[in-house]
Amino acid sequence: MEDQSIISALILGLIEGLTEFIPVSSTAHVLLAGQFLGFKSPGNTFAVLIQLGAILAILTVYIQKLLSIAFSLPSNPRSRHFVLAVLVAFLPAAVIGAIAHDYIKAVLFETPMLICIMLIVGGVILLIVDRMAFTPRYTDVMDYPLSLALKIGFFQCLAMIPGTSRSGATIVGSLLMGTDKRSAAEFSFFLAMPTMLGAFVLDLYKNRNALSMDDGMLIGLGFIAAFVSALFVVRGLLDFVSKRGYTPFAWWRIAVGVVGLIALQIYG
């Protein structure tokens, strides 16, 4: 295993953790950075498998709330409703992701031009939505109706196009359907757990024969880097978006997309 590969894996892991839960598309950042670092993994598994580090970061931050919900399930209808809402929101991605997995990985993940364009388009949409004056009807994720959760789940499926952003799609969908900014981001956190875990298991199964020991070590390094960096983001994101909204992330997306397009034209 070369030193350059180790450094690249750590850099990409940090990028994954820093971008997974903000609406800028972690997959786009990892794939584009890997493109220019010359980093390759079998079936582009690295970008998906290191997301497990980000999942564990959420579990670490929300462990008390998750345990409280779990222990109260037998006696608390509100807890049961919340768990069911998350599962309902997860269902569209589970079905569509399983059907379209090979196409997504073989075609969409291999099209950096598309990724850059989607970063820009998503940034413009995020700018527009963030500046719209909504009157929130839902401010607590525990009370999201099942119909709202299902609609958010369909919005999440847009993120199967790399560059769209899973959190960005769910947050924009939530805001358009009457949630406030803070609860939209928090529901995106909880929905990420089954979604990213499902993607991890499916991708690991699909590529189980293509991964080597060196691949496993690089994924492990990326996983650790993603976990550490994601901890900082998860702990501070809700307060940040409550005060400043999503406009800073929108401009970042646009800037990265434009720079990516220019770099692709120059370097190929």
Structure in a nutshell:
With 268 residues, the chain is mainly alpha-helical.
How would you sum up this structure, described in words?
Its EC number is 3.6.1.27. The protein contains eleven helices and no strands. With 268 residues, the chain is mostly helical. The protein has one domain. The radius of gyration is 18 Å and the shape is globular. The two termini are 26 Å apart. The relative contact order is 0.22.
State the main characteristics.
268 residues; single chain; mainly alpha; 11 helices; 77% helix
- Largest sheet geometry: none
Distance between the termini: 26 Å
What's the count of strands?
A: 0
Average the pLDDT over all residues and give the rounded result.
89
Class by SSE composition: mainly alpha
List SSEs in N-to-C order. Answer: HHHHHHHHHHH
Shape: globular
Q: How many independent structural domains? A: 1
Low-confidence stretches: none
Helical amount: over 70%
Estimated share of beta-strand residues = under 5%
What is the secondary structure topology, with strand pairs?
Elements: H1 3-19, H2 26-37, H3 45-49, H4 51-72, H5 77-106, H6 112-130, H7 146-156, H8 166-176, H9 181-206, H10 213-244, H11 247-267
Helix pairs in contact: 1-2, 1-10, 2-6, 4-9, 4-10, 5-7, 5-9, 6-8, 6-11, 7-8, 8-9, 9-10
